[in-house]
Amino acid sequence: MTYFKLTLLLALSPLLIFAQQNISGTVKDTEGNTLPNVSVGILHTTISQSTAEDGTFTLENIPVGEHQLVAHFVGYEKASVTINVTENAQLQHHFILKENTRELQQVEILGVEDQSYNNEYTFSATRTGTLIKDVPQSISTVTKELILDQQAYYLGDVVRNVAGVSQYTIYNDYTVRGYRNQDGQLVNGLKTAFNFWTQPIIGLYERVEVIKGPASALFANASPGGTINFVTKKPLTTTQGSASISGGSFNTYKANVDITGPLTKNEKLLYRFNTGYQTTDTFRDNSGGESFYVAPSLSFVPSDKTRFNVDMVYMKNNTVLDRGKPNYEGSTDLSETPINLSTSQPGDHLNNDNLYITFSWNQKINDWLSFNSSYLMFRSQSDLAEHRTNGKYISPSVLEMRYVERDEYENSDNITNYFVSKFNTGKVKHTLMFGMDYSAKVYDKYEKQARGEAQGVPNFDLDNPQYGNSNPNDYDFDPKRTIEKGTTAYTKNHTTGIYLQEQLQYKKLNVLLGVRQEFYKDIRVENGQQVAKDQTAFLPRLGLTYEITKTINAFGTYTEGFEPQDFGLNAEQNGGPFDPKKSNMWETGLKGDFFDGRLSATTSVYWITVNNILVQDPNDIDKLIQRGQEQSKGFEFEVNGQVTKNLSLTVNYAYNDAVITESDNPAEIGRQKENAPKNQAGFWAKYDFSQGTLKGLGLGFGGQYVGDRLTNTEGLVLDAYMLWDMAVYYNIGKFRISANLKNLTDETYYVGGYSYDRVFPGAPRNYTIGLNYTF
Fold it and tell me: Residues with Cβ < 8 Å from 596, sequence gap 6 or more?
């Protein structure tokens, strides 16, 4: 009997295999060309597949019932069709996808309507509009949706979502893969002049990207750890808008309006207007202030071949320059002084204004050639008055002080022009780019200082802090520390680069080859005369990606970096001038897209070597010294996107071993770099209830871990910390009420630090309650 059953089963097995519900078909474009690597799947299930080289797909074991069959590929409009699957059905459907001009342009002209923690593509990393999984380098993204859910306002609020990035201080100052990033920021892929002392406001940005490792092959002088790129919100072809208000701890109040849509019936002229405001006292003594931004944008698309975009942003910060919390000399117990303690005095201020305008033009010349041009004008001005420590202790509890008044002016202009040619040679697809860019930066300041009691500045007693006990008008300003505008502080640099890049694809293999020739000139004022210094650099970039499966790519890259040390600010009186910083990176890893492209994951290992690093002289806070070499080796892991239609997730972990490998000081060799944690991790999850009595409710929960860090002072270590945050959302029609609670356990922690008299505490437990309206 058993033998009979087995024989019958074997005989019927072909029929049993066939007796399931399948659907097959092809995906083509409007010209009849087959499209490989298109994601085709059944909505709200795990059934999906990428099309083969001939554009075909087959989905098996589809449940009986009505479903949505979806085809999606970046650069094309998403297509869907309702299918009714009956028992043993063998269905066929053929998709024709229309090109979407809003995606994968060579210049990012128009906005995108996606609402996810996941971002599929990048313009800045290759300048050609490329899927992130096809870029042979780690790229991290924080989208506007995650920024909204976490009610973030400054850049420092969102770096917790990026593997390998942490705050070096509370300023516009970060550690990326172990290396300090002070001047490695872009707007729409172009160089900026953001003020160092105030963090950029991020409510006006579509997303924040971090391109890991040296990016000099595209952007000239770039930080070795990584480059931060802000992508401004662009106009949409649909009319929509949002308005929000919020309030919370430390007398913090915010408001934001964002509206967009077409200005003409034919949708050729589009607009976007974004504005926001915040006022806060913060948790620090004699601190706080207000800030706001206004960001209008226009896009003009007269035809499928021509596209223009203009962004203007005005950003203002009226605040106080917080120099950190002072502590007792030589004491590693940082709890001996409260986290709110500040040396700032009533009347201290830092008023910073940023204005920048971006212009982008994309011209399709013919089917295989396009021209792209972008220009950014950036102007920054600040007015400072501050009381700060002078880096000296009179006794373990008494600090010598200084008073500084400063006006700073920083301008930058950046333009890039390049051609992109897409063509095939046999089975090999080519994307060839050739271009030239130019950037110029000017810095100038007026400054005067008074130091110590001898010049009228009272000491600061940690046991009995006094505020408002002196008048800057009575100080005896030191003529040797007075800098007139246009004199020794005036610096100018400009750089011209010629670059060539080839992206070729052969079956499952993608190759990226890039070279750049850099011509850099630095100018400073010396004895009333301008003195120039010329430098050149040849910068290669090589990367490979290979499709292991339809959803997973392996990648590897080698790239070199070049970062001149500022010739003017590091002149002889500051210990310079210094040789340029040179770097290189090896990196390899895996990238994957899962759940019909809703979720992306990247894991990588890397090795970065940097020579000629500038650090503060431990014996003189006004001078710099140059180290020989540092190395950073590490591992990173990131996940972003949607696991289901209800659950959104972002997870990151980084292990980074950043050490000093060569130095004139033998005691430094092998030591961990300053403010560079070996371990850090973070996650954030949001679940939206879409059915039942809890429909409209959303819950968010997350955590951030940062390991211990060394400071610039030997023996002073900042302890590791773990923060927990949560949020509750409720949607009623077009309204959304949200409540965010940060630092649930009221952890005392420090985001960075220099020395005993300057460490930077993070915020205690705090809350924000917000109301958002969409229309």
Answer: 39, 41, 43, 48, 70, 72
* CA gap 432, 465 in Å, rounded: 63
Question: Range with the lowest mean pLDDT among 351-355, 375-379, 564-568, 771-775?
Answer: 564-568
Give the helix, strand, coil percentages of the chain, each rounded to 5: 10, 60, 35
The pLDDT of residue 106: 54
Q: Please provide the size of the chain in residues.
A: 775
Q: Are 682 and 704 in contact (CB under 8 A)?
A: yes
pLDDT at 396: 96
Q: How far apart are CA 636 and CA 210, in angstroms?
A: 13
CB 231 within 8 A of CB 209: yes
Among 517, 489, 139, 187, smallest CA distance to 356 is for 187
Which class for 671: exposed (0-12), middle (13-18), buried (19 or more C-beta within 10 A)? Answer: middle
Residue 352 CA: distances (Å) to CA of 155, 250, 410: 16, 22, 11
pLDDT of residue 614: 77
Tell how far CA 158 is from the center of its chain.
8
Scanning the structure block, which residue is given the tokens 């990012």? 108
Lowest mean pLDDT across 8-12, 273-277, 606-610: 8-12
720 conformational bin, left if phi > 0, alpha if psi -120 to 50, beta if neither: beta
Query: How far apart are the C-alpha atoms of 322 and 148, rounded to whole Å?
Result: 27
Output the six-digit token pair for 216.
């000099």
Measured CA to CA, the distance from residue 213 to residue 226 in angstroms comes to 4
Q: Please tell me the predicted confidence (pLDDT) of residue 193.
A: 86
Average per-residue pLDDT for the chain: 90
Smallest CA-to-CA distance from 432 within 514, 540, 553, 528 is with 514
Helix (H, G, I), strand (E, B) or coil at 568: coil
Third-level CATH fold of 231-774: Maltoporin; Chain A (2.40.170)
Per DSSP, the three-state class of 194 is coil
Residue 517: which H helix or E strand, with range?
strand 509-526
Q: Which amino acid is at 302?
A: P
Give kind and range of the element (H or E) at residue 147. helix 144-149
The band of 220, judged by pLDDT with boundaries at 50, 70 and 90, is confident
74 falls in which pLDDT band (50, 70, 90)?
low
How many CB atoms neighbour CB 88 within 10 A?
A: 12
Distance CA 457, CA 469 (A): 10
Give the integer Cα–Cα distance in Å for 543 and 259. Answer: 40
**Half-sphere exposure (Cβ direction) of 272: Cα atoms closer than 13 Å:** 26
**Most confident residue range from 382-391, 485-494, 612-621:** 382-391
- CB of 163 within 8 A of CB of 636? yes
Tell me the pTM: 0.86
End-to-end CA distance of the chain: 70
Give me the long-range contacts of 464-473 (CB less than 8 A, separation at least 24): 465/341, 467/285, 467/286, 467/345, 467/346, 468/345, 468/346, 470/345, 472/347, 472/385, 472/403, 472/405
Phi, psi of 224 (to 5 degrees): -70, -30
What CATH topology corresponds to 20-97?
Answer: Immunoglobulin-like (2.60.40)
The owner of tokens 């985001």 is 751
Burial class from Cβ neighbours inside 10 Å (0-12, 13-18, 19+) for residue 661 reads middle
Instruction: For residue 745, give the 3-state DSSP assignment.
Output: coil
CB half-sphere exposure, 477, CA atoms < 13 A: 14
Closest to 27 (Cα-Cα) out of 70, 83, 90: 70
Pairing relationship of beta strands 22-29 and 90-97 according to DSSP bridges: parallel
**pLDDT digits over 518-564, tens only?**
999 988 887 788 888 888 999 999 999 999 988 899 999 999 998 88
Q: Does domain 121-230 have CATH number 2.170.130.10?
A: yes
Give me the residue spans of the domains in the chain. 20-97, 121-230, 231-774
